[in-house]
C-alpha cells in the first residue's frame, strides 16, 4: 500500500515537472564556430538531459571494457581454487584408502592449482610417504617446516620419519625444534618425545614425559640399572618399588643395588618385602647369591619365606634348600606340599625326581597313569604379553616387538617357547 502511494506521488511529481518544463517560456541559443543553434527552453532542457544520459552510457561502456581482463582473471582463479580444493579432497580420500598412486596424482594436481600452501605440501608429503618416496617426503616436510604458521607440521613429519628410520639424533633435533615453537600439539609432542626417550634408553626422561598409563615401574628399573651412581640408582629402584610394590624386577633391582652399595641387611629386607607380595624365583636366587654353604642357604631361604610359607613358590624353595642341605624327608614334605598346592610343572617333577633319586623311592604325580600321563603346564618364564615371545630374563622393552613394559612372568604359548 505504501509502495503504491509512493509510486503515485512520484508519478504526480514527474507529471508536474513535465508540465512545468513544457510551459517554460523563452529561448536558449548558442553560437559555435559561426553556427547558431536556437531552441525553446523545454526542448533545450530535454536535449541536455539526453546528452547527459548518452555521456554516462559511454563512460559505463568504457569502464566495462577496461575491467574485462580482471574479471576473466578473477573467474579463472576462482575456477582454479575450486579445482584445487577438489584435488585436495581427493588426495585425502586416496590417503585414507591407502591408494598411493591416486594420492600422489591428486596431491601434485592440488599443488599445481593452489601452489605450495601448508595444506598442499602436507598432503603431497603424506602421499609421497605412502608411496615409499621418503626422500621426496622429507624435502616437502622441510619446505613445510619453513612456514611461519605451519612449521610445526613440517617438523612433526620430519620427526616421524627420523623415528621410523631409527635415527634418534635427528628425531631429538626435530623434537627440540618443534618444542621451541610452543604451538598447539604439545601433548602429541610429549607423547612422541616419551617414545623417543624409550627408544634411546633415556629412562629418566621417559618417566618424566610418559602419561599415567605408562609402565613407570619398568622405566624406573631400567633407569636404576643404567645409573652408574649407586646412591642415585638405589633411589630410582626404590621409586620403582613404590610405583608397583609387587613387581619382581623392581624388588630384585632395589635389593641388588642395596647390596652393591654395601647395605646387605636392607637388601635382604627388600627381598622379604618382595616375597611377601609376590613370591618369585628371582628373589630367592638373589637372596641366596654369594652363599655357597647349604646350611646357610637353608637359613636364608627360611627367613625369606617366613611371611608366606604356604605359597607353592615358598614350598619349592624350601624343598630345594632342604635337598641341598641333605634333609631329604623335609625336602619331600615341602615338594609334595607344593604339588598339593596345585603346582604341576616340569621343574617340580625334576625336583621330586632328584629327591626320589636320593633315597631310592618313586613319587608318581597325582592320578598318574603311565598309559595316559596328566598334561603338565610348562615352567613359567618371562614372556612378552604383546608378541608372546619368551625371554630368558626380564627387560624394560621387548627386544622382538619393541613394546615397553610388557614383559611379565607367565607361560608363553608352546610354539613360541620352542621357537624361542
Ligand atoms: Zn614383544
| Physical arrangement of strands within the biggest beta sheet | 4-3-5
Percentage of residues in helical conformation: 55-70%
Rg estimate, integer Å: 44 Å
Total count of strands: 5
Domain count: 3
- Helical segment count: 19
Unreliable spans are 414-420
Element-by-element helix/strand order: HEEHHHHHHHHHHHHHHHHHEEEH
* End-to-end C-alpha gap: 96 Å
Overview of the structural elements:
This protein has 420 residues and is mainly alpha-helical. It folds into three domains: 83-209, Tetratricopeptide repeat domain (Serine Threonine Protein Phosphatase 5, Tetratricopeptide repeat, Alpha Horseshoe); 216-376, Serine Threonine Protein Phosphatase 5, Tetratricopeptide repeat, CATH 1.25.40; 378-420. The protein is 68% helix and 5% strand. The protein contains 19 helices and five strands. The strands form two sheets. The chain has a three-stranded antiparallel β-sheet, with no helix packed on it. Strands 1-2 form a two-stranded antiparallel ribbon. α3 (100-114) runs antiparallel to α4. The longest helix is centred in the N-terminal third of the chain and has 57 residues, at 41-97. The protein is rod-shaped and about 150 Å long. Bound molecules: zinc ion. Zinc ion (ZN) binds next to loops.
Amino acid at each position: 500500500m505504501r509502495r503504491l502511494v509512493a509510486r503515485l506521488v512520484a508519478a504526480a511529481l514527474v507529471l508536474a515537472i513535465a508540465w512545468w518544463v513544457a510551459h517554460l517560456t523563452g529561448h536558449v541559443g548558442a553560437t559555435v564556430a559561426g553556427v547558431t543553434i536556437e531552441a525553446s527552453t523545454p526542448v533545450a532542457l530535454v536535449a541536455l538531459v539526453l546528452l547527459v544520459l548518452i555521456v554516462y552510457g559511454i563512460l559505463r561502456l568504457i569502464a566495462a571494457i577496461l575491467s574485462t581482463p580482471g574479471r576473466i582473471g578473477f573467474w579463472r582463479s576462482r575456477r582454479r581454487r575450486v579445482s584445487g580444493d577438489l584435488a585436495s579432497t581427493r588426495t585425502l580420500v586416496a590417503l585414507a584408502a591407502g591408494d598411493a598412486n591416486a594420492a600422489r596424482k591428486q596431491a601434485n594436481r592440488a599443488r599445481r592449482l593452489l601452489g605450495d600452501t601448508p595444506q598442499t605440501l602436507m598432503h603431497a608429503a603424506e602421499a609421497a610417504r605412502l608411496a615409499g618416496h621418503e626422500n621426496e617426503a622429507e624435502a616437502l616436510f622441510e619446505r613445510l617446516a619453513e612456514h611461519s604458521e605451519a612449521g610445526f607440521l613440517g617438523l612433526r613429519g620430519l620427526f616421524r620419519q627420523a623415528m621410523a628410520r631409527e635415527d634418534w639424533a635427528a628425531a631429538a633435533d626435530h623434537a627440540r625444534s618443534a618444542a621451541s615453537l610452543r604451538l598447539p600439539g604439545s601433548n602429541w609432542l610429549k607423547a612422541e618425545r616419551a617414545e623417543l626417550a624409550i627408544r634411546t634408553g633415556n629412562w629418566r626422561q621417559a618417566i618424566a614425559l610418559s602419561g599415567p598409563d605408562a609402565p613407570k615401574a619398568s622405566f624406573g628399573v631400567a633407569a636404576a640399572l643404567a645409573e652408574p651412581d649407586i646412591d642415585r640408582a638405589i633411589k630410582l629402584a626404590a621409586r620403582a618399588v613404590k610405583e608397583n610394590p609387587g613387581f619382581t624386577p623392581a624388588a630384585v633391582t632395589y635389593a641388588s643395588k642395596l647390596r652393591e652399595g654395601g647395605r646387605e641387611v636392607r637388601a635382604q629386607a627388600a627381598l622379604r618385602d618382595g616375597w611377601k607380595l609376590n613370591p618369585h624365583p628371582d628373589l630367592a636366587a638373589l637372596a641366596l647369591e654369594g652363599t655357597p654353604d647349604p646350611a646357610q642357604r637353608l637359613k636364608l631361604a627360611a627367613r625369606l619365606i617366613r611371611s608366606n610359607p604356604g605359597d607353592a613358590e615358598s614350598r619349592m624353595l624350601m624343598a630345594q634348600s632342604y635337598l641341598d642341605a641333605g634333609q631329604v624327608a623335609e625336602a619331600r614334605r615341602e615338594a609334595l606340599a607344593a604339588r598339593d598346592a596345585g603346582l604341576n610343572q616340569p621343574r617340580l617333577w625334576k625336583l621330586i625326581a632328584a629327591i626320589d633319586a636320593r633315597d631310592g623311592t618313586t613319587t608318581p604325580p597325582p592320578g598318574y597313569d603311565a598309559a595316559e600321563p596328566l598334561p603338565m603346564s610348562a615352567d613359567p618364564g618371562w614372556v612378552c604379553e604383546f608378541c608372546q615371545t619368551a625371554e630368558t630374563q626380564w627387560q624394560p622393552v621387548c627386544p622382538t616387538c619393541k613394546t615397553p613394559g610388557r614383559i611379565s612372568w607367565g607361560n608363553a604359548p608352546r610354539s613360541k617357547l620352542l621357537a624361542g
